[in-house]
Amino acid sequence: MYAYRHPEIARNRIAELHHQADRDALAIALRRGRRALRDRSGHATPARQASAVRRALTRLLPRSAAIAAAVLIGLAVLGAAGAAFASTPAPQGNGAAEQLFYTTSGAGNGQPNGAEIFAITVRGATVTTRDVGPTHGADCGSLALSPHGTLYSMCGSLFGAQRLATINRQTGRAHLFGARVRGLAVMAMAFGRNGTLYAIGDCNPAPKTFECTPGPAAYNSLYKVSLRTGKLTRIGATGAPQFFMDLTVDRHGNILGVTTTLNPSLTPAMVYRISPATGKATKLFNLVGSNTVMGLEFGRDGQLYATDFVQNPGLYRIGTTTGFETAITALPFGFSSGLELMN
Question: What pLDDT digit, counting tens, does each position of 105-126 carry?
Answer without folding.
Answer: 999 888 889 999 999 999 999 9
